[in-house]
Amino acid sequence: MKLKKIASLALAGIMAVSMLAGCKGATEPTEPENPVVPSASGVASYLNDMLTSDQRKKISFEDDSTLRANTLAIATDSNVVTPTKITGATTAASADPSVTKKVVDEYASGSFETTNWSTWVDATPAGNDGIDYYLATYVLDGDMTEVNVADAIYTVWNNSFNNDLDNVNSKDTVWSGDVAAVKVYNSKNADDTAWVVSVMITKTITNGTNTQV
Predict the structure, then answer these.
(1) C-alpha dihedral over 145, 150, 152, 158, to 10 degrees?
(2) What global pTM score does this model have?
(3) 208: phi > 0 → left, psi -120 to 50 → alpha, else beta; which?
(4) Which tens digit of pLDDT belongs to each residue from 29-49?
């Protein structure tokens, strides 16, 4: 029994060495130009914490998986989120039109507005009944914490949350928010990182129903 056990352990050792040798000679995958910095984004949670009690009656935010996937696809594309955008990212949130458009293009369907908030927020979707989306994507300094990122986004949207999220044309209107934050760096300069943050506001309008009183 002891001899069999020793032989078995020896064989296992030979197999392990063989496997390691095989791995060592394998071709390593090519690193993307904008690799993702591992980070479990809590920006949506922090943003919700910053909302006032009145704002919470109108809107709340989630970390939407589809928005995250579409933002990730663009954040890791160095032709869109260029090394210059990464190194030039600041702590002030200002929507990047070219990056925003690319994130919208990742969606297979949906009616999106990306620039004219003041007109969009008061407009009724085609057919007087439906869903519209407003999307903006920001490139922010990667040295910011998630709380800093949420604060920068809240600073930009605070007035809109206070003043704009009402019923549209006296129709029942429900507002909801999604946010996705991805942190990346460019392989040519790993010391610089940037947050790519997408904010999507969804406007759902119905004609309402008549109820007997």
Answers:
(1) -160
(2) 0.79
(3) left
(4) 454 567 665 554 689 999 999
